[in-house]
Design a protein that fits this description.
Strand order of the largest sheet: 6-7-8-3-9-10
Structural class: alpha/beta
Number of domains: 1
Number of helices: 7
Order of helices and strands: EEEHEEHEHHHEHEHEE
CATH superfamily: P-loop containing nucleotide triphosphate hydrolases
Bound molecules: adenosine-5'-triphosphate, magnesium ion
Shape: globular
CATH class: Alpha Beta
Number of strands: 10
Radius of gyration: 17 Å
CATH architecture: 3-Layer(aba) Sandwich
């Protein structure tokens, strides 16, 4: 599956009346690599949650491959998630499971057989520089290493799009660059990548299109946009 992500006139009002997004429109073509930037509270995480079907828009439409994510049935949401790799700061690793078992979870849910999933778990951990830590407990890893386990879990299912919320927040520049190199590898093979970040150093070192939010409004959408 390919992944085109389109927001058309999206307003998101959370309970309590605050408008986190206001009439936001932009399109990410299949295979694009883009940053989502803007001040704290601008609405970056909200954009990612809407694209993943974690939140629903108050007005407007969120389309992932022509599918209206805000209207997907409860049964269709897991289908959507299987095609998206999510790296979210509030999605924690399960402490009762080893690192490898945490990474395996999406494959188990998708019904991938044990031998194939073991192979893919090892490959994903290798990609994030954690080969050999498969049997460790998440608590035995540093914050940055745990972040990389979360990234391994997001890529293990070979998603059509990667949505990452502050994926380099706990990392030093070298580890951040390694994560970006990984995302760019996925971009190079056609995966749509969207990264919400405050990290101007990362953006300077890894240039990409930038969708800029300000108080919930899209104030810039990079090359060829807005539409
Ligand atoms: N579940 C929620 N309920 C009520 N208000 C919320 C909720 N989630 C976010 N908001 C509000 O919506 C606005 C946008 O939040 P969002 O998390 O999308 O911002 P952000 O750009 O990701 O910020 P940060 O850079 O701090 O992560 C903020 O004013 C926030 O307080
Ligand atoms: Mg955020």
């Amino acid at each position: 599956m390919a992944a085109t992500i389109r927001f058309a006139g999206v307003t998101k009002r959370y309970p309590g009346g605050h408008d986190a997004l206001v009439d936001a429109s932009f399109t990410l073509a299949d295979g694009e690599f883009a940053y989502l930037t803007g001040h704290s509270g601008a609405g970056k995480s909200t954009v990612l949650k809407l694209a993943a079907g974690i939140e629903r828009p108050t007005h407007g439409t969120v389309l992932v491959n022509q599918q209206n994510v805000g209207r997907l049935s409860a049964r269709a949401i897991p289908w959507l998630r299987r095609h998206l790799g999510l790296v979210m700061p509030d999605v924690k690793l399960l402490e009762g499971l080893s690192v490898g078992e945490n990474v395996r979870l999406p494959l188990e849910i998708a019904g991938v057989d044990r031998a194939e999933s073991s192979r893919r778990v090892r490959a994903a951990l290798d990609k994030v520089g954690l080969a050999g830590r498969e049997r460790a407990r998440p608590a035995a890893l540093s914050g940055g290493e745990q972040q990389r386990v979360a990234i391994a879990r997001a890529i293990v299912n070979r998603p059509a799009a990667l949505l990452a919320d502050e994926p380099t927040a706990n990392l030093d520049a070298a580890a951040a660059d390694a994560v970006l190199a990984l995302f760019r590898d996925f971009h190079a093979v056609g995966v749509t990548v969207i990264i919400a970040t405050h990290d101007e150093g990362v953006i300077a070192r890894h240039p990409g299109r930038r969708v800029v939010l300000d108080h919930g409004r899209v104030i810039g959408a990079g090359a060829g946009e807005p539409q």
